[in-house]
Specification:
Blueprint lengths: L1 E7 L10 E5 L12 E5 L6 E10 L13 E2 L8 H14 L3 H8 L8 E7 L4 H7 L5 E3 L5 H12 L3 E7 L2 H9 L3 E7 L11 H12 L8 H8 L3 H9 L3 E7 L19 H15 L5 E6 L5 H14 L3 E5 L7 H11 L3 E4 L5 H12 L5 E4 L11 E7 L16 H12 L3 E5 L4 H9 L3 E5 L10 E6 L3 H4 L7 H12 L3 E5 L8 E4 L16 E3 L4 E3 L6 E3 L12 E4 L3 H11 L5 E4 L9 H10 L5 E4 L12 E6 L3 H4 L6 H13 L10 E6 L5 H7 L3 H14 L7 E9 L2 H18 L5 E13 L2 E10 L3 H13 L1 H5 L3 E6 L6
Parallel strand pairs: 11-16, 11-17, 12-14, 12-15, 13-14, 15-16, 18-28, 19-26, 19-27, 25-26, 27-28
Antiparallel strand pairs: 1-2, 1-4, 3-4, 3-5, 6-7, 6-8, 9-10, 20-24, 21-22, 22-23, 29-31, 29-32, 30-31
Helix pairs in contact: 1-2, 9-10, 20-21, 21-22, 23-24
The protein binds adenosine-5'-diphosphate (ADP) and zinc ion (2 copies).
Family: Belongs to the helicase family. PriA subfamily.
Keywords: ATP-binding, DNA replication, DNA-binding, Helicase, Hydrolase, Isomerase, Metal-binding, Nucleotide-binding, Primosome, Zinc
GO molecular function, one term: hydrolase activity
């Protein structure tokens, strides 16, 4: 008897260890690690899913093991590397191993789907299985005998198994991006037709003339050649043609960019490529940090090191913050490596994502570019992992499992024996500090390509009389700058890191501020919708005509958002064409790309937006960058506020003057003397790093201390607080005197969707007991969780609010 160790889909910490099940004889050769199976669980007849982690010959267990009920996947969906990773990830992020395993799968496999056998070769056994059909659906009813046959055929590479999404909503999407091919095969029976069957004759004649192009898609025949669906159906009924459904892989990369070749490297670039190449060749799993000013040509270094990995017969994985925001980066990679590239990101439909995933699994691609979750791409023989803009907060998932892509990348690098390259003009303090200590190898690129000068930055003090006197949000300096740019037919980027129209609505009579009924935040006015909106839970309500509190009519809007700035720009420069890019204008698929393309083609003069316009864009005609209010990120109650401000200002400034023309940057601020703003204006990362390190040291923060954030949430505020104090006491007894315990305190937004949130912050240098204690607390509170408590543990949080 064989035994399978299975991680079951029962989300409690207890199930983070595998359960043993016996493998019925009929499934002996079928079950493999990495497959999902259905197993009985608990006393009743309940059947649940589980992942097979390991197969062994016998069990230590005294009683009788329950058998696996059926196999769900007829091929492993996760490799051994991923199974191992899931255990590490669950432990590291305090999450359920089952959630980690599910996170690694493409979403289609978590949705409703059908599994089909797809023949790869001609074979009598396949013919018997398919019985004249194009494909064979594997349902719950398929008997064990057949399952064994399917498995044998798959192991002999005679068939493949494909997943097709059955979810209705997803199907509509799938159709929009072209999916199923309908093949029409010509049968030589045209003569049987009567003369009045005009449509069918047309169809047959067309097919005869296009034999070379068969199979032809149903849709193409209909749309391009006017051959109706009905005619095809009748022709099929008459046995003249055969309509077959075949699943075609979708290609999510829209336009194929022009093919590029290697540029001649500058000295700095060459030094970087050589160092990384040496680690690729010697299979050394070390981490490099490229600290390169904006425009120093980091991308070319990435591309040429990827090439080095491919030369070693290896694959390469490249992570970017958010694909939709970095279309240029994706184009550069695809432009260099063409069909060998798969692109993974959240904008893909389930079907598209599955197709890209399949191409990677089948070794059809050598390079994967993607956002955070692409770090789980099923690549093997990885020779290089690159993380561009490594400081970006989006690399940390802020839901369970709360993993950082950098950590996962380093884990995979160790297993694959390959280097990791982190790149940024403004590295995270953690990474830069590790480079300082020699844990990472630092590579600095100080010069811009062609010795192009850095943009000239002008800081405007908004407290000055001439600035505070203006109506609206544009200082005379920024107004003049925009005027000049427009007059020269050059382009400008305007940043305001706050979307919406106004930040809040307040009564001048009684001071009442309109707030979300579910969350402890003020509602934001959205002019286009004429509604007040909550940015946390999505709650919407009409704009009140009078104060809900005192009935006064003196209720008005305060603060500024992108929508408001757009209106001001239209009033100040009626002739200028303005594009706005924020969460509200980019909801639809492809909306980002469209806005950026229009701007790139100079169909607009000003690109206005939130932080999403600050990243990686390379528009040669942009000579002015204006920052409306540099203080929005600075005023966050977060220990990373200065770091975020420095990063945002440096990145957005780097968008100006990237070609021959000199760039100008105008930063409006109420804190002109703040070091984050001053250093950013000089693109002086090193000075900023030293100052910020000093302050972090003073206040015992990352990277001097490790931080773990524990939050407790419940609908009852008193219960939440009680639970929080209990938790703190548990920790106090477990930890040494060196650990710093803060809280419990309400989170900045202490109520979200009608739940109260309290947090405890643990700062420590070395607390070997902390991890175990937290796991025990999580286990022990399972009973409490049922009563509506949510305890979340975040290792190295990206923000503490
Ligand atoms: P970064 O990512 O460091 O901000 P980029 O990689 O976008 O910089 O490079 C800036 C510009 O310089 C790009 O337009 C790029 O094509 C160009 N470039 C990079 N390397 C070279 C090179 N070796 N020779 C000529 N042009 C280069
Ligand atoms: Zn009022
Ligand atoms: Zn809300």
């Amino acid at each position: 008897m064989s035994v399978a160790e299975i991680i079951v889909d029962v989300p409690t910490m207890q199930t983070n260890r595998p359960f043993e099940y016996s493998i019925p004889d009929a499934l002996t050769d079928v079950v493999e690690p990495g497959m999902r199976v259905e197993v009985p669980f608990g006393r009743g007849k309940r059947k649940i899913q589980g992942f097979v982690m390991k197969i062994k010959e016998s069990s230590e267990f005294q009683g009788k093991l329950k058998p696996i009920t059926r196999v769900i996947d007829l091929k492993p969906v996760l490799s051994q590397e991923m199974l191992d990773l899931s255990a590490w990830l669950a432990d590291r992020t305090y999450s359920f191993q089952i959630s980690c395993l599910q996170t690694m799968l493409p979403s289609v496999m978590r949705a409703k789907y059908k599994q089909y056998v797809v023949p790869l070769v001609d074979d009598p056994e396949i013919d018997e299985l398919l019985q004249g059909q194009a494909s064979f659906e594997i349902t719950n009813q398929v008997d064990d005998e057949t399952i064994r046959l399917i498995n044998k055929l798959r192991q002999n590479k005679k068939i493949d198994i494909q997943y097709v999404v059955e979810n209705k909503a997803v199907q509509v999407k799938r159709q929009a991006v072209t999916t199923d091919l309908n093949i029409i095969q010509l049968h030589e029976q045209k003569s049987q037709l009567r003369a009045n069957a005009k449509a069918q004759i047309k169809l047959l004649e067309f097919l005869a003339a296009h034999l070379q192009e068969l199979p032809i898609e149903f849709n193409v025949l209909e749309k391009d050649y006017g051959i109706s669906r009905a005619a095809i159906k009748t022709a099929e009924k008459n046995g003249l043609v055969k309509v077959v459904e075949v699943t075609k892989l979708r290609k999510p990369v829209g336009i194929t960019p022009e093919k590029t070749t290697n540029l001649a490297l500058t000295d700095e670039q060459k030094a970087a490529v050589d160092q990384i190449d040496a680690a690729i060749v010697s299979e050394t799993p070390k981490t490099f940090l490229i600290e390169g000013v904006t425009g120093s040509g980091k991308t070319e270094v990435y591309l040429q090191t990827i090439e080095k990995a491919l030369k070693q017969e290896k694959t390469a994985l490249m992570l970017v913050p958010e694909i939709s925001l970095t279309p240029q980066m994706v184009n550069r990679v695809v432009g260099r490596f063409g069909d060998q590239v798969a692109v993974l990101h959240s904008g893909l439909s389930n079907g598209e994502r599955y197709d890209e995933w399949t191409r990677i699994e089948n070794h059809d691609v050598k390079v994967v570019v993607g956002a955070r979750s692409a770090v789980f791409a099923p690549l093997d023989k990885i020779g290089l992992i690159i993380i561009d803009e490594e400081h970006e907060a989006s690399y940390k998932q802020d839901d369970n499992p709360r993993y950082h892509a950098r950590d996962v990348a380093q884990w995979r690098a160790k297993v694959n024996k390959c280097p990791v390259v982190l790149g940024s003009a403004t590295p995270s303090l953690e990474s830069r500090a590790r480079a300082e200590k020699g844990v990472y190898q630092l590579i600095r690129m100080k010069k811009r390509i062609n010795n192009q000068t850095l943009p000239q930055v002008h800081i405007v003090d908004m407290r000055d009389a001439e600035n505070s006197a203006v109506k609206g949000d544009f200082s005379p300096a920024l107004k003049a700058g925009l005027q000049e740019t427009l007059a020269k037919h050059e382009q400008a980027i305007v940043l305001l890191n706050r979307r919406g129209y106004s930040s809040f609505m307040m009564c001048r009579e009684c001071g009442f501020v309109l707030k979300c009924p579910n969350c402890d935040v003020s509602l934001t006015y959205h002019k286009d919708l004429r509604k007040m909106k909550c940015h946390y839970c999505g709650h919407e309500e009409p704009v009140p005509q009078f104060c809900p509190n005192c009935k006064s009519k003196k209720i008005g809007f305060y603060g500024t958002g992108t929508q408001n700035i757009e209106q001001q720009l239209n009033e100040l420069f009626p002739e200028a064409r303005v594009l706005r890019m924020d969460v509200d204008t980019t909801r639809r698929k492809g909306a980002h790309a469209k806005i950026l393309q229009q701007f790139g083609q100079h169909k607009a003069d000003i690109l206005l937006g939130t932080q999403m316009i600050a990243k990686g864009l390379d528009f040669p005609n942009v000579t002015l960058v204006g920052v409306i209010n540099a203080d929005t990120t600075l005023s966050l109650a977060d220990f990373r506020a200065s770091e975020r401000t420095f990063q945002l200002l440096t990145q957005v400034s780097g968008r100006a003057g990237r070609a021959e023309k000199i760039g100008h940057v105008i930063i409006q601020t109420y804190n002109p003397d703040h070091y984050a703003i001053k250093d950013a204006s000089k693109q002086d990362y090193e000075t900023f790093f030293k100052q910020e390190m000093y302050l972090r040291h003073q206040s015992n923060y990352t990277p001097y201390y490790f931080t773990t954030l524990i939050s407790v949430a419940n609908k009852d505020e008193g219960q939440t607080l009680k639970q929080s104090y209990w938790l703190k006491k548990q920790l106090q007894t477990a930890l040494s005197n060196d650990a710093i315990l803060l809280g419990p305190s309400p989170t900045m937004i202490s109520r979200k969707q009608n739940k109260y949130y309290y947090q405890i912050i643990v700062k420590y240098k070395h607390e070997p007991k902390l991890h175990q204690r937290l796991l025990e607390i999580l286990n022990g509170t399972q009973a409490d969780t049922k009563k509506g408590f949510t305890i979340a543990i975040d290792n190295e949080p990206q923000h503490i609010d």
